[in-house]
Amino acid sequence: MYSMPSRIIPRKIILLLIFLFIGSLISQSKNSTAQVSVAEYMKVGDSIKYSFKSTGAYIPYGDQDLFFRITNITDPSNILVDILYGEETIDRAILLNQSVKVGWYILNNNSLRNNWQICPLQNTSASKIYEYWVSSNLRNVSEYYNDVQREALELLFCYDTFLDGKNYSIDVRWLWDYNTGILLNNSVFFNDTTDPSLSGLYEQYLVETSIWTLSARIIPGYPIIWTIVLMSFGLGLILIVSKNGLRNHHKKTIRTINKNNVFKVLGIILLLFGPSLVFFNRTIPFTKATPQLIMPHANVLLFSNKSESAIAVSLGLDDRIEYSLFLASTNTTEELLALDFTSFDVIIADGYLPSNESALHKIKSNINGTEYETSLIFFGGNYSQSALLEFSSYFPVEFVIHKDALNISITKFYQEQSGFLEFATMEFYSQLYSQIETYEIHKDDVQVAVSEEQKALSKDDQSMYITRIAWQSTPLLYERILTYAKKPGAITLIEVPDTKEPLIVTWEKDWDGDEKFSQVIFISPGVSTVWDYNKGEENEWNTPFKLWPYFNYMLYMMVYDCKGLEPDQIEMYADWPYSPIPHRREAIIWMVFVGSLWVFNFTLFFVLRKKSKKRDLAKSNNSLNLEESSSEDTKGQSSK
Q: Around Cβ 342, how many Cβ atoms within 10 Å?
């Protein structure tokens, strides 16, 4: 029977790929020269979704998604949209504004394609976009949005301005899609030269749209040739694998294992590895037998709402640290006012501070040189608003948000950019303003990272909190007080990588000008037990954080740092007696165990080797006897 040669199929596939490649080139060339109107790319009902990335003072603006739903495209230079917000999908989103002019969010795509050097945003009033739309600020770029590569026009510029009584240095980026005129990205860095705490990055970027799949070009801007190449590569790989699979289908691999050889190999490995365990202590995870530092006693006043809180348990590990516990449930304001603060080196607020005004003033008068230069370690928690606002000037971070300045700077910025006194998203920022609290508790999970300012330093100049703790092992954090900026002179140690939100900040400050500095350390993620008003029960914040092996050591370092000891006077993690790793006694036990194990393995190796030789000798003797008997039988038969 005649069978078709197998080579014909690959030839057909190759011809098909060539045909598709030529077709894609023709499609590319046609679309690059044709005059494509807005109606060919979008229709009424299409939607666009934007997400936000915010750092610094603008973090509150990064919490909600924003939707545009197109309602009118009759005039390409005046498209109308509905604005929705507040949910992940447009079907569930809240309608905020109807049939508003889209402004700079969708430019006239015909104008961009005809002559991109002429600004399509023509207004009677002055605008920064129009002012800076010059060839030196424009360039063609290619970026991926909604998993699709887009050919886009980028506008970059920076300038100084005066908004709401404050001086700003502003860096701006705009990015519009060539085919549709849709805004792909807008990022703004506000550098407030008057008040650095109001500086930050605000970025909006397209994450989802129903428009890309509606083009006659299948997917505008998508490199179809790469799809074809990948498909052909995958097909070739499948053919190769199938061919090799058929070739090896009937083959079998049989391996024989000699038990004696296995024992010999294991014995040699143990023989070589054993001495390395004993004589090279780098291979064993125990601490060096360094002499323990003589640490002075430290006295701590702990404010907490639970007698066996994580902080209290941690402080109780080291008998060189003595703490006095002031409980929310049992101690009174009179008892607090009667305390002698001169005996305390540091005050720790563990998710609780009194709300009584007299009590707060008593604590404040004993912090950072106002009377006794007592230092403060503040763990974030569900504090009363009166306590937070009362202590806000003592903290090295900004967590009380300047709502008016923040919202006015955003609104005036976009008015200045576009020349529009009213713009599409003005209502969106108005509703955000109404939702932003004076201070906020966040409960989203975040990773932690060493701050960029610490990474920029040499290892010798970095804080001991950075060099002595493996922060990459930190578990996810959840509940925390939102902090968006550090204060001048403070040092951010740990931050959220994406938003640069400060998580752990230190501040040495001379409060009364006597050149005596004392510490304030702010840790925004708390570990205290707080009352959850939504669930009607008590919940502990950040339980994995308190179970983290470095947590206790971190608190130990903070106490003695606040007491005034230098880093070389504070024990390393390996030398601190309460770190969860083997110390001198454990190291000796481990060394004895490893040495004994090595001797046992060495002895076992020779015993097994001796037995193996005996078995081999017996086998050789048996084989000789068999050969002799067989030769004798052969001689007997031949004689017969």
A: 11
